Automatic annotation (TrEMBL):
The chain crosses the membrane at residues 32-52, 64-92, 144-163, 199-218, 230-251, 271-288. It comes from Ancylostoma caninum (Dog hookworm). This is Serpentine receptor class gamma. Keywords: Membrane, Transmembrane, Transmembrane helix. Coiled coil: none annotated.
């Protein structure tokens, strides 16, 4: 995550006294920019979840299960930033609503660190199944994979709890439209964790996937001649290159300060991290495309079946009404005897 996006004033009471970087139309434009990106990315994640929900499972399918969890935590982070940026338009007093800004930070930051952890786990899972295709299931049993997911959830909840205490606080500061960390000894620990996660994003996947492709090429399982191999390579390449570029930007180009343009660039780069894992799947992955088409087809079939039932019911009602009208028209007319009988009753 961008180092410059966590600006660190001396105390939390000074956050509201930070330079008014974004006011008036500037804050409106930045808020709309963040909101537009968040809304678009949330929509893509929802489409992705609908597409892969039937591909999830254990053993070799565990990668899609991890991807499902990645999308869920990305949505948590994106929704939090969306709400925070829109709340900035209300110009609320920072000290009065300090707990609100801290809640935003306690949801956004743990979701980011959890996504990084899930990415590392997914890379490890793929590496094991590539290096040991016949025995990997013996080591990565279903029970172990469940423990890993439970550990990830516990990790997320623990971070949420810690960031809602006085030990360490990360706050959304509307005057600078980004995050700020309370200045105490724990802030150094947070900064260290942030650096480690950045290296995890940029280096681990780069090294792991390079070794993975080397194994496939050495075993002559990858020739780059078949269409699905090319798509798979492009999918991995786009993800790894994007993560490495973000790593370079976060670690070597961002700087702490109150420059408006640098703040917007840093926060935008953080938002793009939430989509770079699943976007290559939406573009290149054939299984995801099949699931999306199947979902659309089944939905269209349900709509068509519902329409057919309604038409059948309408035709049935029409026939019934027609028969009723016909019966009424063909009934014999009343005779003088009938009229007499009615009049005497």
């Amino acid at each position: 995550m961008s180092i410059g996006s966590e600006i660190n004033p001396r105390t939390t009471t000074q956050f509201s006294l930070s330079p008014q970087v974004f006011v008036g139309t500037d804050r409106l434009y930045v808020s709309l920019w963040y909101s537009l990106i968040c809304t678009l990315f949330i929509s893509l994640h929802l489409i992705f979840i609908i597409a892969i929900r039937r591909l999830c499972g254990w053993n070799s399918k565990f990668s899609f299960t991890i991807l499902l969890f990645i999308s869920i935590f990305c949505i948590i982070g994106l929704v939090t930033i969306l709400v925070a940026s829109l709340t900035s338009l209300l110009y609320l007093d920072f000290r009065k609503y300090k707990i609100l800004w801290q809640i935003f930070g306690s949801l956004a930051k743990p979701s980011y660190f959890t996504v990084v952890s899930l990415n590392v786990i997914m890379t490890f899972h793929r590496f094991v199944y590539t290096a040991l295709p016949f025995t990997a299931s013996n080591y990565l049993r279903k029970s172990l994979l469940k423990v890993i997911l439970a550990g990830i959830l516990l990790f997320f909840l623990s971070l949420v709890a810690v960031l809602n205490t006085e030990i360490l606080g990360v706050f959304w500061v509307d005057v600078i439209m980004t995050w700020a960390v309370s200045n105490n000894h724990a802030a150094d620990i947070y900064d260290l964790i942030n650096h480690i996660s950045n290296y995890g994003v940029g280096i681990i996947n780069l090294v792991a996937y390079t070794c993975l492709f080397a194994i496939l090429i050495r075993r002559k399982l990858l020739s780059f001649t078949r269409n699905h191999e090319i798509k798979m390579t492009l999918q991995v390449l786009c993800m790894v290159v994007s993560e490495f570029l973000l790593f370079l930007y976060w670690e070597f180009t961002t700087s702490k300060g109150f420059d408006a343009w640098e703040i917007v660039k840093g926060q935008t780069s953080d938002l793009f991290f939430y989509i770079i894992t699943i976007l290559p799947y939406l573009i290149f992955n054939g299984n995801v495309h099949k699931q999306i088409r199947a979902t659309l087809t089944s939905r269209a079939a349900r709509i068509s079946a519902s329409s057919t039932r309604e038409n059948t019911q309408m035709r049935g009602r029409g026939v019934f009404l027609l028969r009723s009208a016909t019966i009424g028209c063909t009934a014999r007319p009343l005779t003088a005897v009938d009229l007499f009988t009615k009049s005497t009753q």
